[in-house]
Amino acid sequence: MPEKPRAALTTANDIDSEQDGAVLGVLTATAPYVEEAFFRSLTLALTTYGGVRAAVVSELLLDVEKARCLSACLDGKAIDLGEYSLAGTPCNEVVGGGLVSYNHAVANTFPDFPWLAAVHAELCVAIALRSESGDILGTLSIVDDMPRNDLSSLITLVDGVAPRVAAELERYQRWEALRRSETRMRLLVESSKDVLAYFRLQPSRGVEYISPSVVALTGYREEAFHVDPSLPFKVVHEDDVAMAEAYTMSGSEDPIALRIRRPDGSVAWVEVRQFPLFDEEHQLSAVVSQTRDITARIEAQEALRLSEQYRRALLDTMPDTLLRLSADGVILDFVPGEEVRDVLPSGKGLIGQNIRALLPAAFSNSTRRLTQAALRTGQLQRVEFEVAAGHDSRFYEARCMPFSDEEVLLILRDFTAMKWHEGETERRRYRDELDQKVEQRIKTNPYGLTYRELTILHLVAEGSADKQIAETLGISIYTVNKHVGNILSKMNAASRTEAGVRGIREGLLG
Fold first, then answer.
1. Structural domain for 60, as ranges
2. Total of domains in the chain
């Protein structure tokens, strides 16, 4: 029957010489070796001095339910069991109990581990390999195809060599972790586009290490930097050399941007970040630096700056007034254009106010409808409106387009001049007709009316209002009023209607 798991035994002072000799023999056979060679010699020595067919040393993996064979020996030959699941193996019992032994029928006891059946395993002694802190690192097992009633010698053997094996396994795992870490670090450094360098400053300058990516960045091979310690500064653009030198000697860890010049004459922007190293006297002795190509970033920043400059120039030369509004009409931002004083007050202090409270009443409702339509349809909306300004009128165009789900862009433009020019052709034709009529009467009118006064009298007689007369002749309403006053005075007429009727009756108007 299998024996119950028991705690690890210490080597007793009274073990017989045969058992003591077996332990000593294994320790002597493995003494010259370390790492993989140690484990290979260990399993071979265990089979030899233990008189068993097989010995296996395994380490536990991060997945604690699995183990990996470090070395195994069967009938004097090395074999590899690879990774295997602990479940259903004697090693699983070891993880829970420290040392286990089975004096016969071990293959039948663990049918889920086919290797035991393959070697016709009858007995098995296995022990846990613990770290200095007591954690289980792996297992050590010996297996034979012959049952034994007394396993004390085998237990003494594995128990006696276990501390040495555990120490070597712990050292091996630490070394492997360090080696893997160094390998990963080397791969990261060598595959990184950033250039990593170790630059010695004292007692003399020299580049002790520089990563291979320096070739792609500078155009110079690593060897060139080792041969010429001044090359790190020679590749720097002539206008930035003094800054680079001062930065290196400052011991600052803040990054700086500077330019380098490649052998082909091209210039690249780089960002350098250094980490200073000091000697025992707190003198700067070396720097570790990381250099990154930021040419694309600098070019993008310059392109953005030029774009912003171009956009600002466009906005500064546009006649339109631009306002960014919230859905409820609050002014969030604005760019003043030509004067729109008849529509909006001065641009100062506009942000945060509601545009509907600032606009003329006639246009306030139109703006609200315009904003709602733009947000609802997602399309540009347009409206024209007229604002009385003293004796004249100004014409404005408002365009509204959605800026986001809750904001619109309102564009105001004074197009009074455009409006006036649109009707200028018709007004010119009409003035020409008036000129012909007036020229026929100007010399014979008894009231001494001027050419302009006769022209205005014609329009008064046709029923035109002062505003219409001003638009037709291209003069202000004030000027029209002044001329009408002169006409009434010269004709001694009580009203413009009387003046118009008398002008027709007396033949002043053809």
1. 17-179
2. 4
